[in-house]
Write a structure and sequence with these properties.
The complex is a heterodimer of chains A (about 210) and B (about 425).
Chain A lengths: L7 H52 L10 H23 L4 H28 L4 E7 L6 H17 L4 E7 L5 H9 L7 E4 L3 E4 L4 H5 L4
Parallel strand pairs in A: 1-2
Antiparallel strand pairs in A: 1-3, 3-4
Helix pairs in contact in A: 1-2, 1-3, 2-3
Chain B lengths: L2 H29 L13 E7 L6 H9 L8 E8 L5 H6 L6 E6 L4 H11 L4 E5 L4 E2 L3 H6 L7 E10 L5 H22 L10 E5 H7 L9 H11 L3 E12 L5 H21 L10 H41 L4 H4 L4 H12 L2 H24 L5 H29 L7
Parallel strand pairs in B: 1-2, 1-4, 2-3, 6-8
Antiparallel strand pairs in B: 4-7, 5-8, 6-7
Helix pairs in contact in B: 1-6, 1-10, 6-13, 6-14, 8-9, 9-14, 10-14
Classes of the chains: A alpha+beta (about 210), B alpha/beta (about 425).
């Protein structure tokens, strides 16, 4: 004897509830990504504002820049932005125009900061060192980029006050990136430029990197 | 999207639909109460306790069942000493009285001891009870009341484990508590296909008509539950009747238990594969297929996690080697690290689904605490369950499938 279903309608309701919750959670995760995107966008504006202000204080108003307190905060904000924009790129998609716009702006702010560091070195007789890191977020290069990023992160942890690392997306369609690649003769990702003169491709060990630092 | 991501999202989706369905079934089901025996209609009951080398626990078990609030003239306890090599028989003999009868037979396994007990039983309803299980005084009466409905051949209790001590017991403790609501939901769908061997009630006439326990079957209780379904009868569940079993305390003993259970599940479900399909209604079209899908998904995810973890450990080792094992400097910690970690977690749908399932487990546990009373150390046991269960579940199934494919015999003890 065949046993009857208790209620076929219940299957439909369960299917509707399950589908609704599933979609709601997916949507929520995307909302969190966009919320963070908004926050990073605002942070970018404030960071660039701080850098411009510092430079203007010096060049226009002759204010001493060597005792500048905001430099550390700006540097820390900048590092965070770089990482979170990469995360957003993976979440929202590398072709999303909003992400591309943020990355271009980030490149600009990084270079402003790079210029500020060079200025500080010159004017305040400091010895801050710089590394320009060209990574790639292509599917086959992500893990290699992350590995090198972590290596540089550890290097930065060892030299927290004297080393600045700037990362650039090798594949970003941007004039600035193009000019950087030409200036430093960059032909492939995973290339780093130390103190604007030494070029290394895909370094593996921290000792190798340290040997190039002053 | 990677293949494993598809599997993970598919399993989550199936899990959400199934959970919604079971909770809805439970809500609809409790509105439709089955007919129950009145106090004066309660039938005679025989509680059969097979025991093999249980001298340490049988006293407690007998004390607990003797305290049952069931009319004394309407129940008997039958202890079957299954050729124990310790003092089980001697301890049990001390309890011999008008309502406790003790028998000794040569060792033949649990099924054989239960069949022996059934042949001696006077009751219309027969309980099988492990010699290390204890019950609440009202459990027996509450379960027997369901037998008023003549289609019901078996009733399972609110099976839980005793207060846990080891990590492995803590995992099982939560697993059993979660099972309380699910089992009741299955009952409302007439779809219970597993009855705990540690304490369950059966209509004796079923054994007389369809045969007793299969002596050679390593999960004779599962076979019996499937046979009840295949014969067109029903199994009920009574979560208000707590029965406490002792769970394995070590990884090895737990693995051996699960290997026996799951190996038995594979063999018996294959044997009763005719239960799948339209003719058994919700059981064949939803409950069994979802259980099977759950196992398949777990296997995929466990395999993936295993190889992924191996790969990650290797990468991490290589990385640390490259930075001269400078662990401290390889980790940055500031407010931004927290923000980024939170962002990465909360923007990952899988993590949000895990949080949702945590809430669901919370609901299951609230239900359990209403049915069986206090839940021990929930804030400690739940995270342990969450961290370990899905991995253990996958491991148990992989080992069991391996045994089902490449070995012939798994013995009871």
């Amino acid at each position: 004897m065949e046993r009857e279903f208790k209620s076929k309608k219940r299957y439909l309701i369960a299917f509707a509830i399950g589908t609704f919750i599933f979609l709601l959670i997916i949507l929520s995760s995307y909302s969190i990504s966009y919320w963070e995107f908004q926050r990073v966008s605002n942070l970018q504006i404030s960071t660039s504002f701080d850098i411009f202000k510092d430079k203007l204080d010096y060049s226009l108003f002759d204010l001493g820049m060597c005792s500048n307190e905001s430099f550390k905060k700006v540097s820390s904000d900048l590092g965070f932005q770089g990482r979170i924009i990469d995360d957003l790129e993976r979440k929202i998609g590398k072709l999303d125009p909003r992400v591309i716009e943020r990355k271009k702006f980030y490149t600009l702010v990084e270079l402003e900061h790079f210029e500020l560091v060079n200025l500080l070195n010159k004017q305040c007789n400091l010895n801050m060192q710089t590394i320009l890191f060209f990574y790639s977020n292509d599917e086959n290069s992500i893990s290699k980029s992350e590995e090198l990023g972590r290596l540089l992160g550890t290097l930065s942890g060892r030299h927290p006050d004297s080393l600045m690392i700037y990362s650039f997306d090798y594949n970003l369609d941007s004039d600035l990136i193009g000019k950087l690649k030409t200036k430093y003769k960059i032909n492939e990702p995973f290339t780093i430029i130390i103190n604007e003169k030494d070029k290394l491709v895909n370094p593996k060990e921290i000792t190798e990197l340290e040997s190039y630092l002053k | 999207m990677e293949f494993i991501q598809i599997i993970v999202y598919l399993s989550i989706y199936v899990g959400l639909v199934a959970t919604s369905f079971y909770i809805l079934s439970y809500i609809y089901g409790i509105k439709k109460q089955r007919p129950l025996y009145e106090e004066n209609e309660l039938p005679f009951v025989s509680v059969i306790i097979p025991a093999y080398n249980e001298e340490m626990t049988i006293e407690r078990t007998l004390d607990s069942i003797k305290k049952s609030e069931y009319p004394k003239e309407k129940f008997e306890i039958i202890v079957i000493d299954d050729g124990s090599k310790d003092n089980t028989l001697k301890v049990a003999k001390r309890y011999e009285s008008e309502i406790v009868r003790v028998f000794h037979k040569e060792n033949g396994g649990k099924g054989s001891a239960l069949n022996f007990g059934i042949s001696k039983a006077k009751g219309e309803i027969v309980f099988s009870m492990d010699a290390d299980t204890i019950v609440s005084p009202l459990s027996m009466k509450r379960m027997v009341k369901y037998f008023k409905d003549s289609r019901i051949m078996s009733v399972s209790p609110g099976m839980v484990t005793e207060k846990p001590e080891t990590i492995w017991q803590r995992v099982q403790y939560i697993e059993y508590l979660i099972g309380l609501l699910l089992r009741k939901a299955f009952a409302t769908l007439d779809a219970i296909f597993v009855v705990p061997g540690a304490f369950s009630a059966y209509r004796k006439s079923f054994f007389e008509k369809y045969g007793g326990y299969e002596v050679e079957n390593i999960t004779e209780d599962l076979e019996l539950a499937l046979r009840i379904q295949a014969s067109g009868f029903l199994t009920e569940n009574c979560p208000e009747a707590p029965a406490y079993t002792r769970s394995p305390g070590t990884f090895k003993s737990l693995l051996l238990q699960r290997r026996r259970w799951y190996y038995g599940w594979i063999k018996n479900v294959w044997r009763y594969k005719s239960l799948f399909g339209r003719k058994t209604g919700d059981l064949g079209m939803f409950v069994l297929p979802v259980a099977l899908l759950n196992i398949i998904f777990s296997l995929f995810v466990t395999f993936y996690l295993f190889f992924k973890t191996l790969g990650n450990v290797r990468d991490e080792f290589l990385f640390l080697q490259n930075v001269d094992f400078d662990v401290l400097n390889s980790i940055t910690f500031n407010l931004y690290t927290i923000e980024r970690t939170l962002f990465l977690l909360l923007s990952n749908p899988v993590i949000l689904f895990i949080l949702l399932f945590l809430v669901m487990i919370g609901i299951y546990l609230i239900y359990a605490s209403k049915k069986i009373g206090k839940v021990h150390n929930i804030y400690f046991n739940l995270p342990i369950f969450f961290l370990l269960f899905s991995v253990l579940f996958g491991i148990w199934w992989i080992v069991s499938i391996f045994y089902a494919l490449f070995t012939k015999n798994i013995k009871w003890k």
